[in-house]
Design goal:
This protein is mostly helical and 402 residues long. The protein has a single domain, classed as MFS general substrate transporter like domains (Growth Hormone, Chain: A, Up-down Bundle), CATH 1.20.1250. Helices cover 78% and strands 0% of the residues. The chain has 16 helices and no strands. The longest helix has 52 residues. It starts with a helix and ends in a 9-residue tail after the last helix.
């Protein structure tokens, strides 16, 4: 098998996964209102609980899955995750109560290993010079999935809140079949290590990874930036509905446009920006763009202007792949899964904090009881976190590890 083919296989697999996830995003507010009978502000609060509960399970089990992939290989873990994802979407399509939806999200949080395992897979087959670009390609694959997923999900949402979930289940099942046929194991037997529970919990994983030179600061930056960047998937559908009065179809198209911008940033711009400015300069550029975009979204009142800001909002997509490449260079081959599991837990921790905080900020500035009707105020916190990340990044001289 040529070296490029495994990269293509993992990118297509993750893109299909993103399509399935993006399908359901535009209809989540309507689905929650349908099963609870609450208004949009209360639906946003339930949406935050659902995302946070998913993230709690991912936080607890992300290092377990990462360590299992270091022990048994990437393919088996990836296929189990995809099978559970298909079942989860089917349950969501048939759910008639918010509690069944809640349980489905808990189960899926345990098995959501696709992204971290895909990162570990690419780390296995990449040189240090290739990692940032290939990690960027994963972001671009997800972006491509969000181009098609939300647009199709928005259109399907016009025919009912359940249609996108049936479509997502079908996409996830096809993804599972695709992975079973084409994926090849990337972790060599000599690079596998025994599974230990003391390293397979999030706190043990943080201690193990954080002790490595230079990783403690990068883990802190990664955590702060993750919480900031999660404002878009957590709140955009609610924000656009409240601020601009958009329908599910319009929300889906806006997310598709944002996904296209992410594809261009991570799939096209990433390589040239790193070559010109280095990893440190690339992260500075992405964090600066994040601050500007978040500050502008606070006060935007026109949907056209909001769409015009999305390319700027996509530039922070340069940050995460570059951070991951820096951290990946500092760990051994038998720790790549552990590292990605730890990063998955940090992402999950952000998903616990971000929905609970952002949805409550949104609720405080919307609805009849709002003391100041300004839905965009929800973007003030991520702007501050982006500034904090930039300060931490430049607080010490950059060290070239590649």
């Amino acid at each position: 098998m040529r070296p490029a083919l495994p990269v293509v296989f993992i990118l297509i697999t993750l893109m299909l996964d993103a399509i399935g996830f993006g399908l359901i995003m535009p209809v989540m507010p309507d689905l929650i209102r349908e099963v609870t009978g609450e208004d949009l502000s209360h639906a946003a609060l339930w949406g935050g609980v659902l995302v946070a509960s998913f993230a709690v399970m991912q936080f607890l089990f992300g290092p377990v899955v990462g360590n299992l992939s270091d022990r048994f290989g990437r393919k088996a873990v990836l296929l189990v995750s995809l099978g559970m994802l298909a079942a989860d979407y089917l349950v969501l399509a048939l759910a008639g109560s918010i509690w069944l939806i809640f349980v489905a999200r808990l189960v899926n949080g345990v098995t959501s290993a696709t992204y971290g395992t895909g990162m570990a897979y690419l780390a296995d087959i990449s040189t240090p010079a290739q990692k940032a670009q290939r990690f960027g390609l994963i972001g671009a694959a997800y972006g491509a999935g969000f181009v098609f997923g939300p647009a199709v999900g928005g259109m399907l949402g016009e025919y009912g809140t359940r249609a996108p979930f049936f479509a997502a289940a079908a996409v996830a099942a096809l993804n599972l079949l695709f992975g079973f046929v084409v994926m090849r194991e990337s972790l060599r037997p000599e690079h596998r290590r025994a599974f230990h529970w003391r390293r397979a919990n999030p706190f043990g994983a943080f201690r193990s990874i954080g002790r490595l030179p230079g990783l403690g600061r990068y883990l802190t930056i990664f955590a702060a930036f993750e919480v900031a960047f999660l404002v878009y998937p957590v709140i955009w559908a609610y924000f656009a509905t409240a601020r601009f009065g958009w329908s599910a179809g319009q929300v889906g198209l806006s997310l598709a446009y944002y996904g296209l911008c992410m594809v261009l940033v991570q799939g096209v711009l990433m390589r040239g920006v790193i070559a010109r400015y280095g990893r440190g300069g690339t992260m500075v550029l992405g964090l600066s763009a994040a601050m500007l975009a978040f500050c502008a979204q606070i006060f935007v009142e026109n949907g056209v202007i909001a769409l015009a800001l999305l390319p700027l909002a996509a530039l922070p997509g340069l940050v995460s792949p570059t951070l991951r490449a820096e951290m990946s260079d500092r760990v051994e081959a038998d720790q790549q899964g552990e590292l990605q599991g730890a990063l998955a837990s940090i992402h999950a921790l952000g998903m616990i904090v971000a929905p609970l905080v952002y949805t409550r900020i949104f609720a405080a500035f919307t609805g009849d009881a709002a003391f100041l009707p300004l839905p965009g105020m929800v973007f003030a916190l991520p702007a501050a976190l982006s500034l904090l990340s930039l300060i931490l990044l430049r607080s010490r001289p950059e060290r070239n590890t590649a």
